[in-house]
Amino acid sequence: MSNRGQGVRTTHTVFSVVEALDQEGGATATAVADSLDISKSNAYDHLSTLQELDYVVKDGDRYQQG
């Protein structure tokens, strides 16, 4: 059961990351982390995964929806 709860939290975080990028028109991993009150490494992991899936693009240190 705890794995399911983790999956739900992860899904919630992913959508929060996408929404943060949408609201800001793009952001750094640090800005996303600060906005969502998560660690920078957590934000970076989500952003990197979204980038691999072509949902976001990275330009320099900024990410935006792809």
UniProtKB/TrEMBL annotation:
Gene3D superfamilies referenced in this protein's UniProt entry, alphabetically: Winged helix-like DNA-binding domain superfamily/Winged helix DNA-binding domain
Domain called HTH iclR-type: residue spans: 15-60
InterPro entries associated with the record: ArsR-like_HTH, Tscrpt_reg_IclR_N, WH-like_DNA-bd_sf, WH_DNA-bd_sf
Alphabetized SUPFAM superfamilies for the sequence: Winged helix' DNA-binding domain
Pfam families xrefs: HTH_IclR
Protein name per UniProt: Helix-turn-helix domain-containing protein
Lineage: Archaea, Methanobacteriati, Methanobacteriota, Stenosarchaea group, Halobacteria
